[in-house]
TrEMBL record:
Catalysed reactions, as listed in the record: Fe-coproporphyrin III + 2 H(+) = coproporphyrin III + Fe(2+)
Database matches in HAMAP family: Ferrochelatase
Lineage: Bacteria, Bacillati, Actinomycetota, Actinomycetes, Motilibacterales
GO cellular component term of the entry, any: cytoplasm
Pathway assigned in UniProt: Porphyrin-containing compound metabolism; protoheme biosynthesis
GO biological process: heme biosynthetic process
Enzyme class: lyase
Record-level Gene Ontology MF annotations: ferrochelatase activity; metal ion binding
Record gene name: cpfC
Name under which the protein is recorded: Coproporphyrin III ferrochelatase
Organism: Motilibacter rhizosphaerae
């Protein structure tokens, strides 16, 4: 059953595939965004530290393979295509190829689970830019609703946290980690004043903590902290930074910490560098026992959960009455984003998959 759709389209960030790609990639990411040059050079070093290769592309190839397998297993006959915002295969090229192949209806699955300009509307603008040159030949593109509070995202995270808690002393605490964004971007995430970026993350963290308690009987103290701040120091971004927080935890005498990167669906550079390299080093300097919980990646339950959401959407588009599973009170997120959702603070641009 795949309702009206002809194809799935995995939509992601993209990343460099070798040392010479790093600066052109970073220029693509930061064009017109006022990111200080020192920050850019610093981030270039993070990539060069890993041979100039971002882990994200390989992880997306693995996710596509896992999705194809699960779709076949469930008897859903939908091919999976792939397009990125900042590096090849570029979204514009992929969507043009789909049009050439006569594909008419596409369901986009974005590798970002939450509402924010960077993780939601910017991708919707990218989709609009991708169809724009194609005119009447453009496929119609829908976007899968946000899956942060889906069982397929929450349950593997619960398991990952339980595993990681086994690596640190009893009495350790949890620190859920996500990408910092400007507070002004958070304010309009999900709609004017909604602050959905933070609210959705806190909802996921609560669900995970409750899941861990259900399974282990342990109620573990937690907070939400941030990594990967960029932008000029004068601009407020979400805080605390994970490294500052580790110092604070050490000062409080906690016996250890598990960091849980719920802001990332796989081990992106932020996870590999900002957590596994930098934050791990901070913890080591402090003598603070530290473990990092796995991201959902290609966990079979996550992949099956995405396919469940694909089927839900296909049925909805086919006019069927379907149950919309969501574990938190801030979900289920609507299929089409509401007016003013995750506004572009630099000015309105056309976007697909929303009411505006
Ligand atoms: C909310 C959010 C997500 C999660 C949602 C999602 O997954 O989409 C995300 C993902 C990612 N961000 C990534 C990389 C970068 N992000 C940057 C810059 C920025 N990110 C921002 C926010 C987010 N980013 C923001 C507000 C900026 C400032 C500039 C701007 O307003 O746009 C910069 C420039 C240098 C710097 O400023 O740090 C880089 C290199 C990669 C690839 C990693 C890899 O290679 O594995 C991924 C998945
Ligand atoms: Fe980013």
């Amino acid at each position: 059953m795949h309702g009206p759709y002809d194809a799935l389209l995995l939509v992601s960030f993209g990343g460099p595939e070798g040392p010479d790609d790093v600066m052109p990639f970073l220029e693509n990411v930061t064009r017109g965004r006022g990111i200080p040059r020192e920050r850019l050079l610093g981030v270039a070093e993070h990539y060069q530290h890993f041979g100039g290769v971002s882990p994200i592309n390989e992880q997306n190839r693995a996710l596509i393979a896992a999705l194809e397998e699960e779709l076949a297993r469930q008897g859903v006959d939908l091919p999976v295509h792939w397009g990125n915002r900042n590096w090849g295969p570029y979204l514009g090229d992929t969507v043009a190829e789909l049009a050439d192949a006569g594909v008419q209806r596409v369901l986009a699955v974005v590798t970002s689970a939450y509402s924010s300009y960077s993780g939601c509307r910017q991708y919707r603008e990218d989709l609009a830019a991708a169809v724009e040159p194609l005119g009447d030949r453009a496929p119609r593109i829908d976007k899968l609703r946000h899956y942060f509070d889906s069982p397929g995202f929450v349950r593997p995270t619960v398991r990952a946290v339980i595993d990681a808690l086994g690596e640190v002393p009893a009495g350790s605490v949890l620190r859920f980690v996500t990408h910092s964004i400007p507070t002004a971007m958070n304010d309009v995430s999900g709609g004017p004043g909604e602050q959905m970026y933070v609210r959705q993350h806190r909802a996921v963290a609560s669900l995970v903590v409750a899941g861990v308690e259900d399974e282990t009987g342990r109620r573990v103290p937690w907070e939400l902290v941030y990594c990967s701040r960029s932008g000029p120091p004068s601009q407020p971004w979400l805080e605390p930074d994970v490294n500052d927080d580790l110092r604070e935890l050490h000062a409080q005498g906690v016996p250890g910490v598990v960091v849980v990167p719920i802001g990332f669906v796989s081990d992106h550079m932020e996870v590999k560098f900002d957590l596994d390299t930098e934050a791990a080093e901070t913890a080591q300097e402090l003598g603070l026992p530290y473990a990092r919980a796995a991201t959902v990646g290609t966990d079979p339950e996550f992949v099956a959960g995405l396919v469940d959401l694909v089927r839900e959407r296909a049925a909805t588009e086919a006019g069927e009455d379907v149950e919309r599973v969501a574990l938190s009170a801030v979900g289920p997120w609507p299929d089409r984003c509401p007016v003013g959702c995750c506004a572009n603070l630099r000015g309105y641009k056309p976007a697909l998959c929303g009411q505006d």
